[in-house]
Amino acid sequence: MAIEIEGTVLDVPATAFEDVSVKGFAEYLRTEGEMSEPEARRFIEAVLSEQVMELGDTYLESMRGHVQEIQRLRGELRTKYDAVLDRFRQAPGKPVELPPELEPEAFRDLFNQLADEIEALKPPEEAIGPVKDSATAKELKDALGGQGEAPPEKPPSEPPEGGPKGPPPGGPPVDPKIQALRDAVAGKPLAEQGLAKLESGGHQGLIDELDDLIEKGDPTGSLEQISSLTDQQLEGLAEVQRVQEEMIAGRDWFDVLDLDPAYRAEMLDLIADVKDVVDSGLGEAISRGINWGEYGPQGALGHLFAARTLRGIFPDARFDFEVPVTGPRDIDIVVKTGGRTIDVEVKTPDPLSDPRVPPRQIRRDLLNHLGDPTGPWEDLMYLFPPEQGGRIGMVENSLLNALDDAYQNPAVQKALAARGIMTQADAEAALLARFNNYMVGTYGY
Q: Which of 132, 138, 216, 251 could disulfide-link to 119, CB 3.0 to 4.6 Å?
């Protein structure tokens, strides 16, 4: 909406009306305050407009009393308006009962006083024209249904007089895909809230795919699910959409959206926490979270929990998931930090079973990391769920036993000797020292 103040036209951005709480308040004014939609919009626009006080210095000197009263009234209106928004934010999509001091009538009284004060402003002729004839005063009267009539609402199918209106002055045109989605879910509050979240967050990838869905089905259900997501979870969902080409078994972001809400929330929070530091493999890790199978929900998210824990240990690190190497398996997570490349194996056994690493894998890991640049096994880690914390010693014993077996190989003895480890006892001491520096540990939930 354009508001004219002293010959200057100022716009209240259309995006202000896409806020879920603002929409809820507008709906309340229409149903409980018996306002038409144009009246409700003008009512809110008048509250949102910060420009009612932009008057010339000369005018302020001559009409200071009226200006001070306008300041007081506008401050009181803003306080009430913020209080109403807080109540709608606390109960999205639910009926809201307002106390008498926040009912539409309380706003009307204050707006009547504000309109009177604006009408009373009589600046010197040589400075500016009478404010009572300005668009601001007229809009306030129209919003209150007092001295002006709100224009009748047109049926949705009937174009406005003079043909379709263009975008507001200075405002960008509405994305046709967004408009198509608005039309598709009109009158469905939760879906409208979901779409508003996508718009305000700038999640164009999700918007594009939902627009494609219009021709194949109905986007309402997906948008209603989106309405329940936090901003962080929505960031996580957008990341799923971005990497879905890497996901296995034809999975995509719609599959994530259809997960159990509590599990979905945890998964999306994790993705949002690590997405900015992952260079590759996130799509495959997400697929594992969807198809948890024998791992169970917590086990399926083990790689993501581990990455978040590792990010806390190595704040400057970058991560790769499911890195292929020679042999039958991939490295779960590769951490790149400070010139180092650390191989991390994430194990997600049944919480009731003992933690273990296959003996063959232990032998291979110990041999592969003999020559780590900063010392044997410095760039090797094993992480288990928190429930296994009291039994990590079992894995450390397995590593010691595997080292004793491997030491019988002359090639292993030679490689250790090159690192200054001359005896089997020295090798065991080096491995025990490594245990003290988080070689085997747990990740956090």
A: 132
Q: Which H or E run contains 31? A: helix 20-31
| Structure tokens that stand for 128 in this block | 């500016």
pLDDT single digits (tens) 280-325? 999 988 988 887 654 455 557 889 999 999 999 999 999 999 998 8
Burial of 249 (0-12, 13-18, 19+ CB in 10 A): exposed
What distance in Å separates the CA atoms of residue 148 and residue 343, rounded to the nearest whole number? Answer: 73
| Amino acid present at 431 | L
DSSP annotation string for 344-413: EEE----TTSPP---HHHHHHHHHHTTT-TTSTTTTEEEEE-GGGGGGHHHHHHHHHHHHHHHTTSHHHH
d(CA 356, CA 117): 78
The answer for 382, left when phi > 0, alpha when psi is -120 to 50, beta otherwise, is beta
CA 191 – CA 411 distance, rounded (Å): 66
Q: Which tokens in the block code for residue 120?
A: 């009373």
The phi, psi pair for 383, rounded to 5°, reads -120, 135
**For the purposes of burial, counting CB atoms within 10 Å of the CB of 282, is it exposed (0-12), middle (13-18) or buried (19 or more)?**
buried
Sequence spans of domains, the chain: 2-144
Buried b (16+ CB within 10 A) or exposed e, 367-388: bbbbebeebbbbbbbbbbbeeb
Residue 248's closest CA among 288, 208, 194, 211?
Answer: 288
pLDDT digits (tens, 9 = 90+) for 44-94: 666 655 444 444 444 445 556 666 677 677 777 777 777 777 676 666 556
Spatial separation of the C-alpha atoms in residues 114 and 118, rounded to whole Å: 6
Rounded CA gap, 222 and 256, in Å?
11
Phi, psi of 164 (to 5 degrees): -60, 140
